[in-house]
């Protein structure tokens, strides 16, 4: 009985401990991380990035496989052959056994080898650019999601701050109404203004929850493990110094056309198609050279020859083993050198010529893709840089505007308490402050998102190139 009671107590304590752990686990606050930490976490867990890494390694192995064509095939072989013929040379043997201790086979078409090697190298370079493309897309999506969450959280703070201001305003109006200083209309007006803000706060909180879920989804987490570090908003933004934006846009477009992964990928695609075309044309432009040979032992199974000849001296049996062979093991070797030319590939109807024409069409297709991408890059960089410049100028103007609006609200509040202005004018001052802070927060968001867009569009990591002074 005591043992059973002890066992029950132990199980209850275990269950209670697990419940406490699960509750603490569910209530654990997300850890605040920086933008760089968020990007690192996302890259480590992103499946597309991992797949691209594996494909890059596969492409590298394909290069090694082409180099492997220069390695001759070395092998050993044992075989038994049986045969029969009524007459002729083959009738002298019923078969043979061969042991080839070592045999070598090597054949190559110089044109096919060279162009296959170049195509595999270009494919490897293209796969590395694809890895870089996916990395830039992951970075951009994480940075955007990071500042989406920052913006959502800041909007909550802004709404709460405005709500507190309106609560204080309502309290002041009620006190003044109690002393008969203001009519009831102003009390109702202040109350309606405060109540109208509450749904905005609820929407902001809902938006923040959604942004937090999306941010952790981008990082690859199933639960809200991480949140943003708001310290990034306290620092000074890097200046965008550009007197002539058109020159900067042209420079960034030029950089993008040389450095963006998608552009390099299409160029590599064109080069791969050109080398593949040359691979098929090499079959009729070049002969295929081959070398082969072996060393081993052979044992014949000779068919006895009835070679008895009657002579005055009596019957004799000549030795024809030199022709029919003997059943003894004997050393054998063979060396073969050849050059083979495929005449059939000269005809336009040959399958190789069709594949050659197909690759030629792929070259033209790649050229059209490159022209289309160039046009799209120019438009996107123009748009992103304009956003960045506008956001920076807005940050500069709204930073001072917020201070002015705060001072204006302080003066308006004192003036209202002194009976100099109406409550509607006080509420207008509060609205002006809210508008200034909203513009400032939105400008900060636009600045960082536009900067991330430009890094993605240009394919560069160093943002100094984007922010440098126009030349």
| Strand order in space, largest sheet | 2-3-5-6
Give the strand content. 5-15%
Instruction: Report the count of strand segments.
Output: 6
SSE class? alpha+beta
Treating each run of at least 4 consecutive H or I residues as one helix, how many helices?
A: 11
How many angstroms separate the termini? 91 Å
Point out poorly predicted stretches.
17-27
Rg over alpha carbons: 42 Å
Topology:
Elements lengths: L1 H25 L4 E3 L1 H11 L1 H21 L5 E10 L10 E16 L1 H69 L5 H36 L6 E3 L16 H15 L1 H25 L2 E15 L18 H4 L5 E11 L10 H67 L5 H36 L5 H4 L4
Parallel strand pairs: 1-4
Antiparallel strand pairs: 2-3, 3-5, 5-6
Helix pairs in contact: 2-4, 3-4, 4-5, 4-7, 4-10, 6-9, 7-9, 9-10
